[in-house]
């Protein structure tokens, strides 16, 4: 399922260099693939590509199936004759080369994309035929998504819970009237998805032909303000007013005295069981076609999940409840066959979670930074001498500090432990020493964050959980992924047998 002794880099699409405010699926993405090839890498891991909502997190999306329109490359649209360069090159995206400004994207990007969609719909019969085929193939999610986004626009962006009764409760007759009244806007949202996946498929083909597989991400939970909950309320733990009964989070631990309150609606697992987990199978099967390999976030939620009463201000009043366990994955394999899946098995570990991982056959994850954190009762599991080959090893994930940042932000006892264990002496070289410890391990696959290739500090970490304001904004600078860096990485890949 995973290539033996291989390696890759974690770099989200948004973090690619671009003169237009955010990384996209254009030339800079292809250049990153070329860099990976030169560096001896076999995998490119990205975060969820679904549309971001308030807070800009790819783990809180309006849809679990849709692609983020921000990633549609404007230069590629210009090549296709859908927009003119003059219509976007002079726009101030209010960002720096190293940061994304999502507010500016929200206010300015769609104006450009509307021009492209209008020209697309007035284009050749051949393109319209391909578009119609895409709409039919993806109707199971696309119809509701386009309608949902249209209604959000008509309601000034308000959550669907604040919409008038028939719309809030997904009344079919009312929605048919809406489809007729807003047909042009609905078509716009469908065209954006066609353009997204047209560019995505071209990028994935480019990467695969170069020998690079793309690892994508499936968030376990979905956002309350999403088309998924609006269109399928029966699949979630909601009351008669469609308000959550209990919500997701994690309990108090050594990292937080009050736990983490995520606020996502919980799945109504009994309802999913009645359909033999059809929604989940369709979701996993769909994303396994979008990506080469699928990482399932918060895998432990399939074993048991933490339920917090809706309205609580922290996670201390929650309780554990049983999830579907291996039944879901047995049903999945029977329906769509074995899939290339990585299980994010981090967090509060129990024997039953370990048993589920073993039964599934999926490789789990090891995070080297966790190995030296004395607050984690399972920290020794992440020491390299305890790795089994069938795992995917990271120094840190998108939720962790960069390596150089970790040596500043972590406790003195923890960093001293890491320095002694890894025989670290030169502070300017900590990031290379930590990555080398990963690469020389027995793990079948190792993934490093792009930030760590440059030795960047905490100001460049992708996400600090339970905070808002500066997350998901980091971008690599133009020209930083150069030949010298590629050659240095390739040397270590050859040294540790990862090519």
Helix content: 25-40%
First-last Cα distance? 16 Å
Q: What is Rg?
A: 23 Å
H-E string: EHEHHHHHHHEHEEHHEEEHEHEEHHHEHH
Look at the structure and give the mean pLDDT.
96
Number of strands: 12
**What general outline do the C-alpha atoms trace?**
globular
Stretches with pLDDT under 50, minimum 5 residues: none
What fraction of residues sit in β-strands? 5-15%
- Major beta sheet, specifics? 8 strands, parallel
Largest sheet: spatial strand order: 9-6-3-2-1-12-11-10
Structural class category? alpha/beta
Number of helices: 18
List keywords for this structure.
single chain; 499 residues; alpha/beta; 8-stranded parallel beta sheet; 18 helices; 12 strands; 40% helix; globular
Would you summarize the structure shown here?
This protein is of the alpha/beta class and 499 residues long.
Describe the structure.
The strands form two sheets. Strands 9-6-3-2-1-12-11-10 form an eight-stranded parallel sheet. The protein is an alpha/beta fold. The mean pLDDT is 96. It has helices at residues 27-38, 74-79, 102-121, 125-137, 139-154, 165-168, 172-181, 183-209, 227-231, 269-274, 278-290, 326-336, 351-360, 403-409, 412-422, 430-439, 450-453, 483-495, and strands at 6-10, 43-45, 213-218, 246-250, 260-265, 293-296, 304-309, 319-322, 341-343, 364-367, 391-394, 445-449. The protein contains 18 helices and twelve strands. The chain is 40% helix and 11% strand. The two termini are 16 Å apart.
Task: Tell me the layout of helices and strands.
Blueprint (H helix, E strand, L loop, with lengths): L5 E5 L16 H12 L4 E3 L28 H6 L22 H20 L3 H13 L1 H16 L10 H4 L3 H10 L1 H27 L3 E6 L8 H5 L14 E5 L9 E6 L3 H6 L3 H13 L2 E4 L7 E6 L9 E4 L3 H11 L4 E3 L7 H10 L3 E4 L23 E4 L8 H7 L2 H11 L7 H10 L5 E5 H4 L29 H13 L4
Helix pairs in contact: 1-18, 4-5, 5-8, 11-12
């Amino acid at each position: 399922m995973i290539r033996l002794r291989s390696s890759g880099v974690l770099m989200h699409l948004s973090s690619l260099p671009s003169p237009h405010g955010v990384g996209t699926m254009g030339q800079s993405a292809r250049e990153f693939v070329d860099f990976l090839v030169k560096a001896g890498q076999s995998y490119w891991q990205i975060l969820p590509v679904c549309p971001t909502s308030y807070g800009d997190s790819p783990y809180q999306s309006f849809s679990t199936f849709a692609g983020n329109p921000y990633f549609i490359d404007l230069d590629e649209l210009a090549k296709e004759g859908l927009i003119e360069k003059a219509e976007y090159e002079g726009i101030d995206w209010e960002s720096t080369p190293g940061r994304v400004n999502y507010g500016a994207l929200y206010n300015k990007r769609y104006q450009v994309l509307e021009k492209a969609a209008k020209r697309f719909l007035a284009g050749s019969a051949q393109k319209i035929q391909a578009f119609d085929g895409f709409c039919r193939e993806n109707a199971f999610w696309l119809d509701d998504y386009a309608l949902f986004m249209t209604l959000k626009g008509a309601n000034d962006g308000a959550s669907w819970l604040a919409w008038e009764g028939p719309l809030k409760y997904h009344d079919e007759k009312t929605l048919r009237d809406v489809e007729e009244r807003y047909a042009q806007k609905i078509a716009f949202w469908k065209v954006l998805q066609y353009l997204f996946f047209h560019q995505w498929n071209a990028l994935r083909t480019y990467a695969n032909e170069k020998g690079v597989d793309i690892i994508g991400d499936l968030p376990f939970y979905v956002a309350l303000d999403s088309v998924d909950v609006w269109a399928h309320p029966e699949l979630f733990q909601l009351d008669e007013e469609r308000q959550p009964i209990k919500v997701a989070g994690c309990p108090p631990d050594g990292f937080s005295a009050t736990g983490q309150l995520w606020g996502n609606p919980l799945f109504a697992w009994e309802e999913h069981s009645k359909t033999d987990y059809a929604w989940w199978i369709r979701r996993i099967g769909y994303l396994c076609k979008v990506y080469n390999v699928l990482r399932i976030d918060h895998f432990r939620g399939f074993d048991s999940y933490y339920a917090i009463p809706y309205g609580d201000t922290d996670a201390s009043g929650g309780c554990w409840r049983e999830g579907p366990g291996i039944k879901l994955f047995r049903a999945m394999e029977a329906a769509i066959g074995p899939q290339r899946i990585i299980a994010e098995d981090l967090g509060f570990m129990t024997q039953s979670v370990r048993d589920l991982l073993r039964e599934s056959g999926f490789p789990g994850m090891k995070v080297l930074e966790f190995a030296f954190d004395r607050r984690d009762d399972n920290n020794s599991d992440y020491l390299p001498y305890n790795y089994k080959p069938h795992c995917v090893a990271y120094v840190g994930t998108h939720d962790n500090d960069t390596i150089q940042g970790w040596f500043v932000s972590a406790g003195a006892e923890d960093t001293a432990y890491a320095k002694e264990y890894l025989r670290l002496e030169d502070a300017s070289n900590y990031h290379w020493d930590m990555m080398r410890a990963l690469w020389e391990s027995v793990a079948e696959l190792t993934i490093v964050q792009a930030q760590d290739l440059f030795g960047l500090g905490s100001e460049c970490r992708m996400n600090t959980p339970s905070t808002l304001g500066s997350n998901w904004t980091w971008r690599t600078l133009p020209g930083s992924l150069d030949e010298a860096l590629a050659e240095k990485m390739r040397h270590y890949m050859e040294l540790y047998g990862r090519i």
